[in-house]
Specification:
Length: about 160
């Protein structure tokens, strides 16, 4: 029995993940096709204080970066913990998925995922308070992501004890 090794090989770092943009205008199949060939990555779990220069320094190790779009709080217009990194080629973006996803930037483990391509307006957080939804109801204190969640119940304990 002959088995091709390439049939057994799966590059799970480059495979398209489960994330789909819920605000995508178009058919699911169209989004799938765009994700399959896109040179654009979504980068999450950034510190609110991570700069575009820091992102560029790290991601340029994987290839030539075309542009970086820092995610902004739609109310305050300040960084809110994510960005888009667009490469000139899909191959460079694949290198970033392989070698940068799960690494540390600004003392945080970042995660990357494929993006169908940046469109104006997507740089803004989609949470009710203007930032990211994941930061709305956070119960713990995270100084790199703005402290406590924005939608904490009134009377909730906001005391913080440093370790």
């Amino acid at each position: 029995m002959s088995v091709k090794l390439s049939a057994l090989y799966s590059d799970s770092y480059v495979d398209i993940g489960q994330y789909r943009d819920q605000h995508f205008k178009g058919q699911l199949g169209e989004q799938e096709s765009l994700l399959k060939y896109s040179p654009t990555l979504y980068v999450g779990n950034l510190s609110f204080y991570t700069t575009e220069e820091q992102v560029h320094e790290l991601f340029s190790k994987a290839g030539d970066v075309k542009r970086i779009i820092i995610g902004l709080d739609k109310v305050k217009k300040t960084a809110c913990g994510f960005c888009f990194v667009e490469y000139y080629t899909r191959a460079d973006a694949e290198n970033a998925m392989r070698f940068i996803n799960g690494t540390r930037l600004d003392d945080r483990i970042i995660r990357t995922d494929w993006d169908a391509g940046f469109k104006e307006g997507r740089q803004y957080g989609r949470g009710k308070s203007g930032g990211q939804v994941r930061d709305e109801y956070r119960q713990d204190y995270d100084p790199a992501r703005g402290g406590y969640g924005k939608a904490r119940p009134i009377g909730a304990d906001t005391s913080f004890v440093a370790a």
